[in-house]
């Protein structure tokens, strides 16, 4: 959760690095609409979390409108303050994330993914998790660090760290994990390796 202007800048840098970008250049908004969306998301998180002054509230209202319009255009439903730094949205298309879900740093997420609520709870997902196209993750479950979730997998139970899962319902199909599927944007941005918060992930 962005709690200061310094953290806002770090989130922006980590998100860019997770896409393999070192800086935001003129024209990138047209070439990379997913990154443009992420930058609006981070700006809105910063304004809503940190700017309580009248100007900050006015800026938040403007950014909120732009964010909503781009969300509809790209097919994204993303809550604020759900994703840690280093988020990488692979490409636009339907992605729906429940407002009670919590996802760690360096998440790589593809299209047609649904992270949803079931039986009164939503998932907690660790750091460095790859979520393949069409995956569905729901319920009060914990997904560990370094997990790779295969395309079209349905995850409705806890997943240990450092594995690859696939199938319906998802089960462990490999011990390789996500290390070859993500970019550690946080490390590239100089964010230390300490957990982003006090959530406890599956061991």
Task: Give an overview in words.
With 203 residues, the protein is an alpha/beta fold. It is 30% helix and 17% strand. The protein has one domain: UDP N-Acetylglucosamine Acyltransferase, domain 1 (3 Solenoid), CATH 2.160.10. It has five helices and 14 strands. The strands form three sheets. A six-stranded mixed β-sheet has the order 2-5-8-11-13-14. A five-stranded parallel β-sheet has the order 1-3-6-9-12. It has a three-stranded parallel β-sheet with strand order 4-7-10, with no helix packed on it. Helix 1 runs antiparallel to helix 3 and helix 3 (33-50) runs antiparallel to helix 4 (54-74). The longest helix is centred in the first third of the chain and has 21 residues, at 54-74. The protein is globular, with a radius of gyration of 16 Å.
């Amino acid at each position: 959760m962005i709690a200061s202007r310094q953290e806002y800048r770090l989130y922006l840098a980590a998100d860019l690095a997770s896409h393999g970008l070192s800086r935001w250049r003129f024209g990138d908004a047209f070439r990379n609409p997913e990154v443009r969306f992420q930058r609006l998301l981070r700006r809105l998180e910063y304004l809503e979390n940190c700017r309580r002054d009248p100007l900050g509230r006015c800026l938040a209202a403007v950014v909120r409108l732009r964010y909503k319009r781009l969300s509809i255009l790209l097919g994204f439903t993303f809550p604020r303050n759900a994703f840690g730094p280093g988020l990488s949205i692979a490409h636009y298309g339907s992605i729906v994330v429940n407002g009670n879900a919590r996802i760690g740093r360096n998440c790589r997420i593809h299209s047609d993914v649904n992270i949803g609520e079931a039986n009164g709870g939503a998932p907690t997902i660790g750091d460095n998790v790859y979520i393949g196209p069409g995956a569905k993750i729901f319920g009060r479950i914990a997904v560990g660090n370094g997990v790779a979730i295969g395309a079209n997998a349905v995850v409705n139970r806890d997943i240990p760290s450092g594995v690859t899962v696939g199938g319906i319902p998802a089960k462990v199909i490999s011990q390789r994990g996500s290390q070859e599927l993500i970019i550690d944007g946080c490390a590239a941005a100089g964010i230390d390796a300490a957990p982003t918060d006090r959530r406890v992930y599956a061991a």
